[in-house]
């Protein structure tokens, strides 16, 4: 079966069938929607996919965090098929469908926002979830501004791209919404030299406070929006002590904390959400946005907050035609069941331990491996020219990615300098497949360095 297979490349890449389809892509699809990988998927199972030429790949990207339970899970296929035979869609503003209610009830149980009674709304994409979370925060607090962070990625809609740090994602599409201010995220690997971690956290907390002095008074700020682990920014985890300090500042000033768990959620971190770790430390966020792996590949996203916050929104502010689509809700309920039943949080930690041991060995062995970091199974390897200068090495990462795919491993870069390799492998990967991927990646490093 494909789900148990190992990487196997039979043809030069792209293969003859893939080459034809990729040429058609160039004629029919905008060039700005880029893809650097010379393969065309025909089917996928577990952590593996086969292309149209019969080549088999191990996927360490998983649709950028969409496939935590893997490709084509048979139980997901069955529940979506069952729902499709009843109805595809029922708009919640017009007629109630129970799947939406069941999924909201489940999310209210498992999403660790502050507050005993919780409510959840559904939309379609991560960017939509972010936009609605901001609207909810502004409507509840009656304040106009938000604070985001350096290195952040929140989406490509107008507000979300304004919130996103890297301006390549929004070049030439202004004017942009106002009331969005940026603080410095605690990127400890590139923090002030000679500082201890404690001193660096204090430094970044001070930087955050300066936003109130230099950009927006605290009583004009509705919310801050923060990724528990920055994704596109380079797989940089927010230090827990920093989160605790920032949450205290927010609470003292009536500012809501929105955790963008779009990429970090659904067992990726070793818990259902990174915010579970925050809640255990007494700093649960006020609003959490989720998407990606929520429905195993069917588009859906969610915003969860306390009933007090979310019921503070005026009628007409939130909602949408396809939000909480019946097929997506059925899939999402089964995804959560599978994660809980099959102990994928625990599996995430097992995979993370194996990868971290190997990655850290490479850090000791190779001058170009500057940092290994992350939470659970969301791990980044940052490549540099040398450890002393820490100069980014994006060319090496580009070469490693090209080598890996030619040998059956699909990996992707991240980071503000495009010098980080991200690990987002489906949590259903077998031990043999994981080992195969580690061997390919190590060979790529040794060959390309």
What is this structure, in a nutshell?
With 449 residues, the protein is α/β, with parallel strands linked by helices.
The CATH superfamily label of the largest domain reads Type I PLP-dependent aspartate aminotransferase-like (Major domain)
At CATH level 3, the topology of the largest domain is Aspartate Aminotransferase, domain 2
Largest sheet: 7 strands, mixed
Q: What class, by secondary structure content?
A: alpha/beta
Distance between the termini: 35 Å
Number of domains: 2
What's the shape? globular
Strand order of the largest sheet: 4-12-11-10-7-5-6
Which percent band covers the strand fraction? 15-25%
How many individual helices? 14
User: What is the CATH C-level name of the largest domain?
Assistant: Alpha Beta
Radius of gyration equals 22 Å
CATH architecture of the largest domain: 3-Layer(aba) Sandwich
User: What is the helical fraction, as a range of percent?
Assistant: 25-40%
- The strand count comes to 17
Please, what is the average pLDDT?
96
Low-pLDDT sequence parts? none
């Amino acid at each position: 079966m494909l789900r148990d297979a190992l990487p196997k490349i039979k043809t030069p890449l792209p293969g003859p069938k893939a080459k034809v389809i990729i040429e058609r892509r160039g004629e029919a699809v905008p060039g700005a929607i880029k893809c650097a990988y010379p393969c065309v998927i025909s089917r996928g199972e577990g952590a593996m996919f086969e292309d149209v030429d019969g080549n088999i790949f191990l996927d360490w990207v998983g649709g950028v965090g969409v496939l935590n339970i893997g490709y084509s899970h048979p139980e997901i296929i069955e529940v979506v098929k069952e729902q499709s035979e009843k109805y595809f869609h029922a708009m919640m503003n017009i007629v109630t469908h129970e799947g939406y209610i069941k999924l909201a009830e489940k999310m209210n149980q498992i999403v660790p926002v502050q507050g005993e009674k919780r409510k959840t709304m559904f939309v379609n994409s991560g960017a939509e979830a972010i936009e609605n979370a901001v609207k909810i925060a502004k409507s509840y607090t009656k304040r106009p501004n938000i604070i985001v962070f350096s290195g952040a990625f929140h989406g490509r809609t107008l507000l979300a791209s304004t919130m996103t740090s890297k301006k390549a994602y929004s070049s030439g599409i202004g004017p942009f919404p106002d009331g969005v201010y940026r603080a410095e995220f605690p990127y400890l690997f590139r923090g002030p030299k000679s500082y201890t971690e404690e001193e660096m956290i204090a430094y970044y907390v001070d930087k955050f406070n300066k936003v109130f002095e230099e950009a927006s008074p605290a009583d004009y700020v509705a919310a801050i929006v923060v990724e528990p682990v920055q994704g596109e920014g380079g797989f940089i985890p927010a230090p827990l002590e920093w989160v605790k300090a920032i949450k205290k500042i927010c609470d003292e000033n009536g500012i809501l904390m929105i955790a963008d768990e779009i990429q970090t959620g659904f067992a990726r971190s070793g818990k259902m959400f990174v915010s579970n770790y925050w809640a255990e430390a007494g700093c649960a966020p006020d609003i959490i946005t989720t998407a990606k792996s929520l429905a195993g590949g069917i588009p859906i996203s969610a915003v969860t907050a306390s009933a007090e916050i979310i019921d503070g929104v005026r009628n007409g502010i939130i909602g949408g035609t396809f939000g909480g689509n019946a097929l997506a809700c059925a899939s999402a309920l089964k995804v959560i069941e599978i994660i809980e039943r099959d102990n994928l949080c625990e599996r995430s930690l097992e995979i993370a331990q194996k990868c971290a041991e190997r990655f850290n060995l490479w850090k000791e062995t190779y001058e170009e491996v500057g940092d290994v970091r992350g939470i659970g199974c969301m791990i980044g390897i940052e490549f540099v020219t040398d450890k002393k200068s820490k100069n980014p090495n994006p060319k090496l990462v580009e070469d490693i990615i090209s080598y890996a795919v030619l040998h059956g491993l699909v990996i992707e870069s991240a980071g503000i300098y495009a010098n980080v390799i991200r690990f987002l492998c489906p949590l259903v990967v077998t031990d043999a497949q994981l080992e195969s991927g580690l061997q390919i990646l190590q060979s790529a490093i040794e060959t390309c360095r």
